[in-house]
Amino acid sequence: MLKINRVHHIAIICSDYERSKRFYTQTLGFKVLQENYRAERNSYKLDLEVGNHYQIELFSFPDPAPRPSRPEAAGLRHLAFEVDNISDAVAAIVADGVVVEPIRVDDFTGKRFTFFADPDGLPIEFYER
């Protein structure tokens, strides 16, 4: 039987590299592991550490296609990050100008969660531990 150990990375293509780099490093606080410019592709690749376990690869490409709709397009629905305290996490990103939906409670788990978007409209969820 196939054995998959864990998620290795999540790749995101952004439309404005500097704006998205600021959002993921400063607003969300992810640590930069490595940043490379690939001249042959006119593309940056930024590796970000998420909680000592996971990695986001942030790519820039000339003229990427827009996301079809939010959040119910076929494909990736949203990206979810676990937080210890959702109220504290929301306060931190709201202070940086991020618009956040009202906090809701999951009907099945009783856990609190909310949604917001990255600079390109990618739906992101905070889910309380």
Task: Provide structural commentary.
The chain has 129 residues and is an alpha/beta fold. The longest helix has 11 residues, at 17-27. A hairpin with a 4-residue loop joins strand 2 (31-38) and strand 3. It has two helices and eight strands. The chain folds into two domains: 1-62, Roll (2,3-Dihydroxybiphenyl 1,2-Dioxygenase, domain 1), CATH 3.10.180.10; 76-129, 2,3-Dihydroxybiphenyl 1,2-Dioxygenase, domain 1, CATH 3.10.180.
Mean pLDDT: 89
Number of strands: 8
Low-confidence stretches: none
Task: Name the CATH class of the largest domain.
Answer: Alpha Beta
Q: Helix count, per DSSP?
A: 2
Assign the CATH superfamily of the largest domain.
2,3-Dihydroxybiphenyl 1,2-Dioxygenase, domain 1
Number of domains: 2
Q: Output the strand order for the largest sheet.
A: 1-4-3-2
The percent range for strand residues is 35-45%
Rg, Cα atoms, Å: 16 Å
The structure class reads alpha/beta
- Give the N-to-C terminal Cα separation: 31 Å
